[in-house]
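Page 42, continued from yesterday. The earlier attempt failed because a stray header line got pasted into the input along with the sequence. Redoing it now with the clean sequence only.
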Amino acid sequence: MPRAPTPPPPPPDRYQRLLAAASTLPPVVTAVVHPCDNSSLTAALDAARAGLIRPILVGPRARIDAVAKQAGLDLSPFERVDTPHSHASAAQAVALVRAGRADALMKGSLHTDELMAEIVNRDTGLRTARRVSHCFVFDVPGHAEPLIVSDAAVNIAPTLEEKVDIVQNAIDLAHALRFPEARVAILSATETVNPRIPSTIEAAALCKMADRGQITGGVLDGPLALDNAISLAAAQIKHIDSPVAGRANVLIVPNLESGNLLAKSLSFLANAEAAGIVLGASVPVILTSRADSVSARLASCAVAVLVAAARREAAARIIA
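This time it went through. C-alpha cells are written below.
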C-alpha cells in the first residue's frame, strides 16, 4: 500500500515576539464592554488565561452568564458589572476608566460606533489632545516584519490636520511595539505629487511637517504607491531612493475606504493575521472581530499591554 503523505509541519506561532514581549509585563485591568456572545467572552477569558489582561466584564449579567453556561466557561474568578443594555455597557466601561479602575477597554458584542461614541464624548469620554485613530498590526505570511496600517476603521475622510495625529499615533505604536525604527509610507495611487490627486499633496505636506518637527519619532516618505512602499525591487525600478521606500513598516492610507480594502485584502487574500487597536484616547482600546483567530485576539490584547506600558513609562518620565 502506498504510504500516506507526511503532513506538513505546523506553522510557527504568529506574533510570537509580540506575545513574548507582553508576557514580561503585568496584566492590564481591562473593562470588557458587553461580552454577550461566545466570541467576545471567550476572547476575554483566553487573554486572561494568557496573563495579558485582568478583565472586568461589563454588560447584562444574565446574558453573560447564559453565554458562559452554554460555552462551559467559568466566570467565578472575574469581576462583573451589571448593565441593562449595550449603550449602558459602553458608558459604564468608560466610567470605570475615568474612575481609575481600568487601564484599557476591550470591545465585546456591541457595534464599534456605539463604543466609540462614549469614548469621544466631550463631557464624559476619554478624549486627549490627540485625534482618536485605529491601527491594524498585520503579520503577513512571507513578509519579514509586522506592518502597521492606519486608519481602516475610525476616521472616514481625515483632513490633513487629522492625518498628523493618525501618523503620530501610528509612530507611537511602532515604538510601543519595540520596532527598531518607524519607517512610515504615506500611501497614494502614485509616487509623484499630482495636483489632481489630493492625497499626493497631503502626503508631501506630511513629510515636510516631519522635517519641521511637527511629526516626530519616525522617518516619513510619500506619496508612495503600495508596491514601492513595501517592495524594494519595485522602488528600485522606479528609481526611488529613500530610507522608507521598499522598507516601510507603517502604512498610512488616504481614507477609511482604501484602508478597509487594504486590510481585508491582506486578511482574505494574503492570509494575514490582524491585531486591532484604537489609539489617541486616554487608554488603549482593543478591537476584535468574530472572524479573528485566537492568535489574532491574543495579539490585540498584547498590543494593548505594550501600549499601556509605554504610556506608564512616558508618564514616569514627565514626573521625573
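Notes: The chain has two domains: 26-128+281-292, 131-276.
Reminder to self: strip header lines before submitting.
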